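User: Design a sequence. Structure:
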């Protein structure tokens, strides 16, 4: 089986690519720039340079592929890179090229909490991408992840750096909003398993970890596992929101997130992993064990 992975320079895409390669699949990693070629080739895959505004490059990259795993996306939009160009346009282009190339299966990472009633930019963009994916002529599979955690994820890396240096970690508002971290290794294994499971296609799964934790509990556990003191810097949500609307160098309260990231962080969407576990036959890694793994590999 030949599998294409788009977004292969990213945190999730690169891990999924390695998993597929190690399972013996023939893998093509789609890249926008030369800089990621070395990693793709080292993982045992072939690199294809593509331009998401050129159908020709995408069709060439997808030629002969049985499945496409679409892991392109951003957590924030900017003037130069609105969600319409970082999420919706690449999704349209990938679906059109996959259909032309005769790809039979297309899996996509949406976001936990995506719903048509949302008014938040991130979730609206994800909802539109889901609609496009569901219109794909072949089989589709949509995952809605909570926070994906593992070696290489920017947020856990930043928290560890702060803990190690004894620096304060911002907590926006109450810190009581919940997250459900899922290991990136589990995500990669679920993606690989999907290729041999007929029953999971044309379905949508919440991609969530086995435990629900508040943001504050998450930080507390991280500090415990790292054996470091936790210094929190509470930031009032109103101030955080004001900050997030300003250029980074004009922020007054130390907020590090964009409005989109703040929206998603405090959205408090949680779900049961039971459907995922039953359909894919996986044992999900407790997030404490993922944290230990991150620390071991650091
Ligand atoms: N990580 C999480 O916790 C999480 C949670 C929920 C959903 N997701 C979704 O899962 C997917 C992968 O996430 P990730 O954490 O791996 O993200 P990531 O590390 O930021 O990687 C994003 C990938 O998308 C590509 N990309 C960004 N803007 C693009 C554009 N305008 N056109 C084409 N490609 C573009 C990047 O390629 P370049 O290197 O060329 O820029 C990169 O390969 C995303 O759709 C994300 O929304 C992730």
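Assistant: Done.
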């Amino acid at each position: 089986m030949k599998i294409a992975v788009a977004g292969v320079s990213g945190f999730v895409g690169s891990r999924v690519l390695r998993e597929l390669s190690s399972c013996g699949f023939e893998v093509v990693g789609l890249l926008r720039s030369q800089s990621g070629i070395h990693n793709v080739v080292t993982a045992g895959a072939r690199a294809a340079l593509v331009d998401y505004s050129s159908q020709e490059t995408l069709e060439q990259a997808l030629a002969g592929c049985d499945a496409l795993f679409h892991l392109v996306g951003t957590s924030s939009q900017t003037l130069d890179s609105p969600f319409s160009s970082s999420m919706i346009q690449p999704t349209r282009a990938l679906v059109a090229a996959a259909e032309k190339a005769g790809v039979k299966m297309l899996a996509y990472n949406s976001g936990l909490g995506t719903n048509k009633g949302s008014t938040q930019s991130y979730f609206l963009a994800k909802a539109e991408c889901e609609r496009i994916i569901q219109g794909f002529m072949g089989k589709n599979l949509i995952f809605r992840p909570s926070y994906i955690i593992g070696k290489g994820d920017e947020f856990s890396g930043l928290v560890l750096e702060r803990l190690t240096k004894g620096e304060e970690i911002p907590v926006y508002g109450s810190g009581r909003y919940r997250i459900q971290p899922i290991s990136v290794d589990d995500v990669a294994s679920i993606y690989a398993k999907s290729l041999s499971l007929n029953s999971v296609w044309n379905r949508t799964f919440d991609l969530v970890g086995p435990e629900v934790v508040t943001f504050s509990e998450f930080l507390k556990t991280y500090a415990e596992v790292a054996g470091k003191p936790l210094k929190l810097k509470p930031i009032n949500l109103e101030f955080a929101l004001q900050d997030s609307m300003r250029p980074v160098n004009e922020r007054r309260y130390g907020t590090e997130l964009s409005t989109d990231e703040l929206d998603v962080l405090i959205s408090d969407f949680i779900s049961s992993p039971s459907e995922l576990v039953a359909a894919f036959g996986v044992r999900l890694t407790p997030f404490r064990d993922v944290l230990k793994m991150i620390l071991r590999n650091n």
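The chain has a mean pLDDT of 97. The pocket of NAP is lined by residues 7, 9-13, 32-33, 52, 71-74, 81, 85-86, 90, 109, 111, 145, 147-148 (CB under 6 Å).
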